[in-house]
Every structure is written in structure tokens, then in C-alpha cells.
Triosephosphate isomerase
Amino acid sequence: MARTPLIAGNWKMNLDHLQAVAYVQKLHWTLKDAAHDDASVEVAVFPPYTSIRSVQTLLDADKIPFAHGAQDLSMHDAGAYTGEVSGAFLAKLGCAYVIIGHSERREYHHETDEIVAAKVQAALRHGLVPVICVGETLEQREESGPTAVSVAQLQVALEGVPADADIVVAYEPVWAIGTGQVASPEQAQEVCAAVRQVVADKLGADAAARTRILYGGSVKSGNIASFMREPDVDGALVGGASLVAEEFAAIIRYQK
Ligand code: PEP
């Protein structure tokens, strides 16, 4: 089954809503000569909550057909949860995707595999596609090998997920995020293949054939093509390099 590659830009806590406007304008002019009308690659951007509306309005006005999403959501749908943002609100805003279980949330906000699983359920309840992040630290890699942590994290995250659910998994080795220490394409392939096997075991062969598995960790315009050549790598989750419009434009045009 052919899977449409997905390039996802995770802005993290960067670009306020005014800076986001300037960014999208720059992206517009960068893409101008070869507008991103290439349906063979899907692109999604994940601004901070406060910039989602500005980004969406500008992308629509500029006819840049990117999807957008949020970097997290609440496991609850509504109520007395100060500071939380419901998946219902994100869906109403037109978000298609939501990142769940990013290593920064696991580390700094103590999100456990069970919390990640509850957030996956919340996303699916509201028709959002969860981008489920998994990946090991260097110590975990040395201790239990390259695939064990991602396999274990994903097994919990997929508890109760129906076989026909639309999900994305992002393999992000923690040691490669924001460090410039990129995994090799072979290392990415090894874990992405193991991740696909978990999807097969939990959700069945059809889901495994359909589900997009991304690599994330110091992806740049200079290395994206090498990852995309791997059979189980269906795209990239890009952090730092997605903040520079010219660089992100070059990444999404990796085939050119
Ligand atoms: C990320 O945070 O999801 C990420 C992959 O970051 P970077 O590309 O900066 O390593």
C-alpha cells in the first residue's frame, strides 16, 4: 500500500502569533516559484496554541495547503482543568493532527505511557489524528537495545485503539532531538520497522500497511532524502529546522 509521506513541523514554544505571521509570509515567498501543490507529500505544521489561528488564516489566504495541528491536548474533554486545551476545541479550530507523548512532555511534564494512551483516546474521540511519539534515551539504548523502549511505549499507547483508527507514529530517539546528533537512516529504519510490527500486532496488517511512521531528530534539508529512502520511514517530524522558512521549504521539497 502506497503511503503519502508526511512532513510535520513542530515549532515547540517558538514563534508568537506575530512572528508566526512573518514566518508564513516568508514561507509564501519561498514557495512562490514552485507553490506546494505537490500532493505526493503532505505537510503539517504544529505552532503553539496561541499561533494556530493566525497560521491557519494565513495559510488558507495564501493557498498553501498545509494541515495544522497542536503540540499536545488534554485527556479530558471539558471542565475544571485550568490551563488545559480540549481536543474538542482543537477539532473546532480545524486542526487535523495533535502530537502526543513528545519526549519533552514525557521528561518535563512527567507524562507516563498511561497518560499518553489516555490522550490518544481523547484525540480519537474528537476526530484528530494522534502523532504518537516514541523513542529511547542513549542510556536506554545501551541498556536494552534500539527497539525495546519504542515497542513498549507504543504497545501501551495503542491499548483500546480500534483497528480502523487513523494514527501516525513518530520515532524520535531522544539523543537525536535538538542535538545535531542525527540517527543514521539504517538506525531509523530498524526502529521504524519494529514500530510497524507493533501496529500489525495490535491493530492488524491493514493498519500496519496504512499507518505512517515518521523519523524525528535533527532532520534537515541535507539529510531528509536519506531517511525517506528507507522503506519504513514515511516522513519526518522536524523541530528546529522547521522554524526557518527557507529550510522547511527545502525539506518538504526533498524530492526535487
Ligand atoms: C522534535 O522536537 O520533534 C525534533 C525532532 O526536534 P529537532 O528536529 O530539532 O531535533
Notes: The radius of gyration is 17 Å.
